[in-house]
Amino acid sequence: MTPSRTAVRTNRARLALRKVAWGSGQVGFATVAAGTARLAWLRARRPNTVRVTSHRHGLAVTFRYPSQLIPTLVVFGDLLEPELGLLPGRLGQGDVAVDVGASIGTWSMVAARTGAAVHACEPDPDNLAVLGHNLAANGLGSAVTVHPVAVGRHAGQVTVQRHSRRYLNQVVAVGEGPSSQERPTPMVTLLSLVDQLGVREIAVLKVNTAGHEADVLAGALPLLIKGRVRVALFLDGTRVREALEDAFTRGALAAYALAIFDGDQARLVDVPTIAALEGPRPSPMNHYVILHRRDSRPLADN
């Protein structure tokens, strides 16, 4: 049975309250109160651009208002995604990280601060412009290589169907979906991208593509079958869960365990089955389902 609109709104309100309560415990009530006031000011004044300094990560993050608004960053004054805590222990000099759906670059910048080489994939021109600005403003332009492409199930040409909230953008094949004046954008598979770059192993892969994570997974399966990704984070959702369950059933992910990340304990917590993802998370800010290779050592040279 499909939940009613009232039930959906109620669930969203409850989740928002849980996030505020959890975030207050992380940064303090005074910070949250000041951030909430600033969010209200933004909604009243509607400036073109906003800059927020994330003190925990030492990053200056600029975004366009309202299309690229990150409410949690404004309210908490920090990037409180628990999974960001996974990066320092999994990345370092000589490692490669890939950010699929880089948006304005927050994940890429945190990854680059570890010393790893980061490849950021983003198809939306507005996001790309702000991504480039944020990288330059934080002195990370040489640490992150930006690829103006979509990543999906197969190579081809797509059109970016822009949403008023850029993180909800959709990509569709040229000629499909609502009419658009946007230029066609190349789409590649993750396999073709890393092979073109000469990358043998991805230390950490992050995929956040507004519901298209299953398509990215499909194009990345040859890499995963060969164990060429140590850790992969996929934005959680029904489609990617179904795709992961199918891949596990077929044995394509035999080298991997399923997990979520406990930010308080700074560790991965294995999950026995896809169905078990319905259980409680360490925090209301956990948004990723994670694959980690059972043998975490770097791949041996052939």
Task: Explain the overall architecture.
The chain is α/β, with parallel strands linked by helices and 302 residues long. It has two domains: 1-80, no CATH class; 81-293, Vaccinia Virus protein VP39 (Rossmann fold, 3-Layer(aba) Sandwich), CATH 3.40.50. 34% of the residues lie in helices and 24% in strands. The protein has nine helices and 14 strands. The chain has an eight-stranded mixed beta sheet with strand order 5-4-3-10-11-14-12-13, sandwiched between helices. A four-stranded mixed beta sheet has the order 6-9-7-8. β1 (49-54) and β2 (59-64) form a beta hairpin. The protein is globular and about 55 Å long. The mean pLDDT is 92.
Question: What is the gist of this entry?
Answer:
With 302 residues, the protein is an alpha/beta fold.
Structural key phrases:
34% helix; 302 residues; alpha/beta; 8-stranded mixed sheet; Rossmann fold; 9 helices
Q: State the order of secondary-structure elements, H for helix, E for strand.
A: HHEEHHEHEHEEEEEHEHEHEEE
| Rg for CA atoms | 19 Å
- Class per helix and strand makeup: alpha/beta
Shape: globular
Distance between the termini: 52 Å
Major sheet: arrangement of strands: 5-4-3-10-11-14-12-13
According to CATH, what is the topology of the largest domain?
A: Rossmann fold
Q: Could you tell me the strand content as a percent range? A: 15-25%
| CATH-defined superfamily of the largest domain | Vaccinia Virus protein VP39
**CATH class category label of the largest domain:** Alpha Beta
Count of alpha/pi helices: 9
CATH architectural designation of the largest domain: 3-Layer(aba) Sandwich
- Oligomeric state, counting identical vs distinct chains: single chain
Number of domains: 2
